[in-house]
Amino acid sequence: MGRGVDRLLADFGHELPSIPQPPAKERDPRLFAPMSRRGERRPLRGWSPASAPVSVWRMAADQAPVLWPLVSAPGLPPRGAQMGIDHFSGASMYADPNGWVLDPAIPVSNPNIFMFGKPGQGKSATVKAFCLRMMGFGYRTLVVGDPKDEYEPLCRALGVAPIAIGQGLDARINPLAFGPLGANWDRLGRDEAQRRAGIVFSRWLTLIRGLVGSQKVGDRPVPFGPSEEKVVDTALKALTGHAAGNSVLTETTIPHLWRALDEPTAELIEACHYASRQHFLDETRLLRDALGILVHGTLRGLFDDYTTIDLDWAAPIQSLSLSRLEGLGDEAVGMALLCLNSWGRAMRETAEPGDMRIVVRDESWKQLRLGLEAVKSFDADLRLSRRDGDIQFAIAHKPSDLLTAGDAGSQASAIAKDMLHLADTKILLGQDQAVADELEHLLGLGPIATEIVTDWARQAPGRALWVVGELMAKVATWLHPAEAALAWTNAKLEGALP
Ligand SMILES: Nc1ncnc2c1ncn2[C@@H]1O[C@H](COP(=O)(O)OP(=O)(O)OP(=O)(O)O)[C@@H](O)[C@H]1O
Ligand SMILES: [Mg+2]
Fold first, then answer.
1. Which of 26, 133, 145, 496 could be cross-linked to 81 through a Cys-Cys bond (beta carbons 3.0 to 4.6 Å apart)?
2. C-alpha 315, offset from chain centre
3. Could you list which residues have their CB under 5 Å from ion ligand 2?
4. Residues 191-199: contacts with CB within 8 Å, 24+ apart?
5. Ligand 2 centroid vs 127 CA: distance in angstroms?
6. 446: left (phi over 0), alpha (psi -120 to 50) or beta
7. What does the alpha-carbon distance between residue 214 and residue 222 come to, in Å, rounded to a whole number?
């Protein structure tokens, strides 16, 4: 060992200055007596993995945070659209409905979303932000019916001209179009042609059933039972040439169908087993009158001719603006939504792999209110989404909107109630206290979750409880200033003020 520098210098008579040391502090007495790793060597002592007895508590998931407020549930994985802050975990909240379906750790089995919220709470703004942010992941958006034309600024910002539908405008949509399934029909093998025909005819029947069943005689819906179905199916097969075994089918329209039933051919009467022409006309009067209203009534000039618009399916967003129908009443808007849904479904029937869409149904309650058949048609769309990977995003004011389809206990209200299970993700924006009961009973939210919706979420637009399967996130959606400008829907109100 050598000498240190100070010692070396001292040997030659140089003293280095030293820093005065503070007096040593008295040590605090030990709080815990030192203990060997094996514990005390006495009876009933020693080492134990848990020093305190484990007590068992039973409580609902929404009560647990009261006792353990600092323990947060595992959040959703950071994949997909970053929506805002999850106030449960304090982290960012990401939405990725298809990713959630594929992730076994997340208890959802479909990518559909139902969103509920009082008017003005930011439902549409949240959808717009979600769609925009999902575009980065390859999703395109189809807004099947925009009753307030509020998606137009978003479309324009993305360089897409929205399509307006209304009386006196050129745009027509034929809900009885074949869609992409009709392409190259003459080159199809027999089996494939039959398969496609099955899909197309069943879609049309669902639509006609919805349109006819939405109309009322007194307060009862116009019936559409097996006899009506047979008549419509037979007429459609005759009109398209399917009955004659044609290899190329002809597109037909609702007025053609109406005329075929109004002036039935002998073949149609016979194929449907009616004794005479008069018998046919007597039995199908209600059906013909209901179809006649579509041809001559409020929706005339909208869905009664061949499609004139040419949607660019590669565009990031497509939206069909419907504000011009507003004056025709909610029922007409609901029927228009039915026609658009059927047509939109047709357009998606041969979606290429990787062609991922978010199908937005804003104000969907208008369609659901039409009755049982309209609910069934909606239900069919939701069921298909698992197959083709579309994210169906339906917006309504409150969960009980789904039940206005029929009287309590009716088939319509039962189907509508079940429909809630077809969307495993629910986004619940602010609601009034009066809706608390239905949040608990229809959605099974506990009191704490219900209070988040009726209190916390009410305090600012965009705040919502996201229920993803059984996971919950208390999310405040943040809009970028550019998004906020596109989602600004208070312009009219602002303009009305002095
Ligand atoms: N996350 C948010 N942050 C800030 N402002 C928001 C947010 N979400 C919505 N807003 C604002 O609140 C207003 C109402 O939003 P929005 O139109 O989306 O409500 P809504 O629930 O769709 O209403 P309605 O039921 O009438 O269609 C808009 O002007 C929008 O800019
Ligand atoms: Mg809205």
1. 133
2. 21
3. 123-124
4. 193/247, 197/242, 197/249, 199/349
5. 9
6. beta
7. 7
For 482, the token pair is 């550019």
Of 209, 144, 148, 214, give the one whose Cα is nearest residue 394: 144
Take atom 9 of ligand 1 and give the residue whose Cα is closest.
122
Q: Determine whether 110 is exposed, middle or buried from the number of CB atoms within 10 Å of its CB (0-12, 13-18, 19+).
A: buried
pLDDT (tens digit per residue) in 121-161: 999 999 999 999 999 999 999 998 888 899 999 999 999 99
Task: Please give the single-letter amino acid code of residue 156.
Answer: R
Sorted by where each starts, the structural domains of the chain and their CATH numbers stand as 73-173+307-489 (3.40.50.300), 182-283 (no CATH)
- Band of residue 50 on the pLDDT scale cut at 50, 70, 90: low
Probe residue for ligand 1, chosen from 85, 115, 123 as the CB with the greatest number of ligand atoms within 8 Å: 123
- Return the closest-CA partner of residue 343 out of 475, 204, 480: 204
Q: Which residues line ligand 1 (CB under 6 A)?
A: 117, 119-125, 461-462, 477, 479, 484, 487-490
Going by their DSSP bridges, the two strands 391-396 and 113-116 should be labelled as parallel
pTM of the model: 0.80
Centre of ligand 2 to C-alpha 75, Å, is 28
Three-state SS string over 62-89 comes to CCHHHHCCCCCCCCCCCCCEEEEEECCC
Beta bridge pairs of residue 141: 317, 358
CA of 489 from ligand 1 middle (Å) equals 7
Predicted confidence at residue 15, as pLDDT, reads 83
Report which of 151, 149, 170, 142 is spatially closest to residue 302, judged by C-alpha positions. Answer: 170
